[in-house]
Amino acid sequence: MANIKQLSETRERLVGGHRLCGGCGASVAVRQVLLGAGADTEVVVGSATGCLEVSTTALPYSSWDTSFIHNAFENAAATISGVEAAYKGLKAAGKIAQDKIIKFVAFGGDGGTYDIGLQSLSGALERGHDFVYVCYDNNAYMNTGIQRSSATPHYSWATTAEVGAALPGKPQRRKDLTSIVAAHHIPYVAQASIGNWKDLVEKSEKAFNTPGPAFLNVLAPCPRGWRYTGEMTIEVARLAFKTKFWPLYEVADGVWSMKEVREKDLLPIEEFLRVQGRFKHLFEPENEHLRALLQAEVDEYYDYIRERCR
Question: Would you say the pTM of this structure is higher than 0.90?
Answer without folding.
Answer: yes
